[in-house]
Amino acid sequence: MKLKQRVVLLAILLVIFIFTKVFLIDNLDTSAANREDQRAFQRMLSGLRVALDPRLEHTLQSPWEIAAQWVVPREVYPEDTPELGAVMHAMTTKKIIKADVGYKGTQLKALLILEGGQKVVFKPKRYARDYIVEGEPYAGYDRHNAEVAAFHLDRILGFRRAPLVVGRFVNLRTEIKPVATEQLLGTFMTVGNNTCFYGKCYYCRETEPACADGDIMEGSVTLWLPDVWPLQKHRHPWGRTYREGKLARYE
């Protein structure tokens, strides 16, 4: 091989060597960054994970008393909440001692009193998980599992301003009807083999009841804020009119 050819070959090998080294270093740096990102993500998940453990060994207070003490003007629960799992477990399992209609708002719900005197709002399941609501953004009924998702998104983003929400199955025949008020009981009906109720609210109609699967109804349970915290109504600057042809002020 001539000297010129050897020099060219050597130059090519040198370039390949340099590019290979740079590529490997970049890959190593990227891999290290990815590993650190994974570790940070796992740490975040570990901090957000909630074990529904009913034990409250370090206090004689009830879950409801603990949750009531969390509420301050800027947040509903603190960042460090080791008792959160116990409160959520109580919301899921405590006996229902009274059930009434949930008058306020546009959507069907029931006001429940759990053992220990805690108020919660029960919003029933209206759609299958994979059902798609067509039409306007506000068309159809509220999804009960959206309430659960909103609470956990609030935790992930660190706002801590959404009330506590859990999913729960209730037996309408054995858990609700025996403790229901006359107002709520008067809205119960049977459709096929399913127990249903339509409650009382702005859009509640006898022709559009929420129905259980037999007697078992899935829904969301939202913890009621302590009565010592009165709520104020603030009009949302980007609120819709919900009327066709009528524009909001910002529009």
From TrEMBL:
GO terms classed as biological process: proteoglycan biosynthetic process
Residues of the FAM20 C-terminal domain: 188-251
Domain of life according to the entry: Eukaryota
Residues annotated as binding ATP: Q107, K123, T222, L223, W224, L225
Entry's localization field: Golgi apparatus
Pfam families in the record: Fam20C (PF06702)
Keywords (A to Z) from UniProt: ATP-binding, Disulfide bond, Glycoprotein, Golgi apparatus, Kinase, Manganese, Metal-binding, Nucleotide-binding, Transferase
Annotated InterPro entries: FAM20, FAM20_C
Keyword Manganese: yes
Subcellular location, principal: Golgi
UniProt key word Transferase: yes
Binding residues for Mn(2+): D142
GO CC annotations on file: Golgi apparatus
Cofactor(s) recorded in Swiss-Prot or TrEMBL: Mn(2+)
GO MF term (any one): phosphotransferase activity, alcohol group as acceptor
UniProt similarity note: Belongs to the FAM20 family.
Name assigned to this protein: XYLK xylosylkinase
Organism (species): Horornis vulcanius
Record lineage: Eukaryota, Metazoa, Chordata, Craniata, Vertebrata
